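Inputs:
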Amino acid sequence: MRIDIITVLPELLKSPFEASILKRAIEAKLVSVHFHNLRDYTTDNYKSIDDTQFGGGAGMVMMCEPIDKCISALKAERNYDEVIYMTPDGNTLNQGIANKLSLKENIIILCGHYKGVDQRIRDMFITKEISIGDYVLSGGELGAAVLCDSIIRLIPGVLGNETSALTDSFQDNLLAPPIYTKPRDYKGHHVPEVLLSGHAANIEKWREEQAYQRTKKRRPDLLED
Ligand code: ADE
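Outputs:
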């Protein structure tokens, strides 16, 4: 998989890809991530990427031309399955979206800033708009990092244990059950007996029940789907 990220702040985005699972996925060539600084696609001396809004109103709008140039240059090189715009008014990211995107070959992610991008860019190029939650960030970069993390860990071969992504929270629309490690007794708090029983079927049943109860209590909306 190849991911191209268009941003005015590449330095804000790089560190999540330089550690742990994402770093290993890149080193193993299971994914490549490329950063494109929007200011490299400007034509004026000030490297402007934004301007005031038509119709008035506070806040700057990201201009069409640099974004058009950048996306068009990328599209001239290869076909893209999706051109994603990170924005608080997009569809809220969930595991289903991450699962689908992890199967794609090439994607572009455009990070918004200020008030966002000129609507014509959305009309001309964007195939998916994604929000990471109902709150407003200073820009799309942190959202793009979250999106990439959620996608990359699902690419076959990225996680050491192939099955472990399948038992994550949300993978079957349930939250994950409680988990424990050594010691068995920590300051009088004991690990549930069933987990020490060695009885695989009972352990599985307990985990399913715990996952269901936790979901019912914390996220009943997930059970409605
Ligand atoms: N840009 C600003 N806020 C955002 C959000 N909640 N999700 C994605 N991109 C954003």
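Remarks. The first strand starts at residue 2 and ends at 7. The two ends are 30 Å apart (CA to CA).
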